[in-house]
Write a structure and sequence with these properties.
Layout lengths: L1 H14 L29 H9 L3 E13 L11 E16 L3 E4 L1 H4 L4 E5 L5 E3 L1 E6 L4 E5 L21 E6 L7 E16 L4 E9 L11 E4 L4 E6 L9 E5 H14 L9 E6 L1 H7 L6 E7 L4 H5 L6 E5 L2 E2 L3 H8 L8 E7 L2 E7 L8 H10 L1 E5 L4 E6 L4 H5 L6 E5 L2 E2 L3 H10 L5 E8 L2 E8 L3
Antiparallel strand pairs: 1-2, 1-4, 2-3, 3-7, 4-5, 6-7, 8-9, 8-11, 9-10, 10-13, 11-12, 12-13, 14-15, 15-16, 16-17, 16-18, 18-19, 20-21, 21-22, 22-23, 22-24, 24-25
Helix pairs in contact: 8-10
């Protein structure tokens, strides 16, 4: 009887070996049952969250081929060109059971080969479906079906101080679980490595280290409320995550179109605090104060005016510019929604239908907000004209100055400039890095009128 049992176990162990990549990928098992010997006192909410989500978390291994030319004589003689393979590790998780995997854009950037490693040891090649550098998100597909997908929650109702759980593979240590709280919401975070500034991040003190990138951040109910991003590598107690509400819209667009379709409202807002409300004589204490309405925009068509205070989007309360921006970034063009606004003490409801942004929106914002026109010149963006009486003239900008970056992102053409400013159309300000001679000046232009 014992021999028969051993043979059965041996056969089962062979059957459970990971399939080779050349073979059809198989379905992945769900989470094993918690042993009955574990008492109820040990089955804390965090234990349950970790146990349930771990089968959904994957290790993402990438390879990139890099070409490099040897230059032993400081460029006087041509060297030999060599290629070598660079490998890196990151995290991800199963978004849907039909094989959709979500991770960070920087995890797979430049990769020529992507391999997804599941918790049970199975390795499967992945195909990159699309990326969004602005939100640092990437969507992959594997040919494995019936995967254990992580349950998706909401980030719109997050509370500062509530418990969160981060899962990933820091430093290649598979299936690492850390805990903490939501430290802050709506953070803007510059990234020197990526050359851009990310907005509307969740801040947490749960440990998020290199390799955690792309893994899920979960609430105490075990639902994904964010996608982890490791940016401050040397910081302690500071981690960031992309809100899942924003990620949903990005992922849906990447799956449907292969790129993100931004919705344009055409209203610039600022956070209204009780102190600011008192100074402005506003009857409402909190909300998103309309600071600019672009002509010909959906906001203008809906009747919004400068000075209106947005207090609700549908049934969702709005207490800041970030809250309003987060909601508008999760909707699609032509998806109508209601706004509750206050004007001179009177509450009114307006309907607004966002549209696709105009093709030249960024250059138009640059002219209307900053007061300058630009041109391409020798792979650089040169200020061609400074309009009279504008902020650009008051600051002292002159034709011939070169714009080298927008909001921390380097640019080298008017096309890139237009794109970067268009993405920042709902921010309270834009930051231009302007070069004159050997000096670079960072200049802030408020978007309000």
């Amino acid at each position: 009887m014992k021999l028969r049992t051993i043979l059965i176990l041996f056969a089962l162990s062979l059957a459970c070996k990971p399939a080779a990549e050349s073979q059809p990928a198989r379905s992945q098992p769900m989470a094993p049952v918690i042993p009955p010997t574990v008492s109820a006192a040990r089955r804390t909410p965090i234990v349950v969250v970790a146990h349930n989500v771990l089968p959904s978390v994957v290790n993402i291994q990438t390879e990139a081929t890099i070409q490099q030319r040897d230059d032993p004589f400081f460029g006087f003689f041509p060297g030999r060109e060599r290629s070598y393979t660079s490998q890196s590790l990151g995290s991800g998780f199963v978004w849907s059971k039909d094989g959709i995997i979500v991770t960070n854009n920087h995890v797979v950037q430049g990769a020529s080969r992507i391999t997804v490693n599941f918790q049970d040891g199975a390795q499967v090649s992945a195909k990159l479906l699309g990326v969004d550098p602005d939100s640092d998100l990437a969507v992959l597909r594997v040919e494995t079906k019936n995967l254990p997908a992580a349950p998706i929650g909401l980030s719109s109702d997050l509370m500062i101080g509530e418990t969160v759980v981060a899962v990933g593979n820091p430093f290649g240590l598979s299936g690492t679980v850390t805990t903490g709280v939501v430290s802050a919401l709506g953070r803007s975070v510059p990234s020197q490595e990526q050359g851009r500034t990310y907005t509307d991040f969740i801040q947490t003190d749960a440990s998020i280290n290199p390799g955690n990138s792309g893994g899920p951040l979960l609430n105490i109910e075990g639902k994904v409320i964010g996608i982890n991003v490791a940016i401050y590598q040397n910081a302690q107690g500071i981690g960031f995550a992309i809100p899942v509400d924003r990620a949903k819209k990005v992922i849906q667009d990447l799956l449907r179109y292969g790129e993100v379709h931004a919705a344009w409202v055409g209203a610039v807002t600022a956070t209204l605090t009780p102190e600011e409300a008192k100074r402005l004589g506003q009857s409402t204490q909190r909300g998103a104060l309309v600071a600019r309405v672009f002509s010909g925009s959906p906001a203008e068509a809906a009747g919004l005016r400068v000075g209106d205070v947005i207090t609700n989007v549908g049934r969702q309360p709005v207490d800041s510019r970030e809250a309003f921006s987060t909601y508008t970034s999760t909707i699609a063009p032509n998806q109508q929604f209601d706004l509750i606004t206050v004007r001179n003490g009177t509450t009114r409801t307006v309907q607004i239908r966002p549209s696709d942004p105009p093709a030249n929106l960024g250059l138009r914002i640059l002219e209307e907000v900053a007061g300058m026109r630009v041109a391409d010149e020798s792979r650089a963006v040169v200020i061609d004209q400074v309009l009279n009486g504008t902020r650009a003239e008051k600051i002292g900008l002159e034709p011939g100055d070169v714009i080298v970056a927008v909001n921390g992102t380097e640019i080298g053409s008017t096309k890139e400039l237009n794109s970067e400013i268009s993405r920042a159309a709902d921010r309270s300000s834009i930051v231009l890095s302007v070069a004159r001679g050997r000096y670079v000046y960072n200049l802030t232009f408020p978007m309000g009128v």
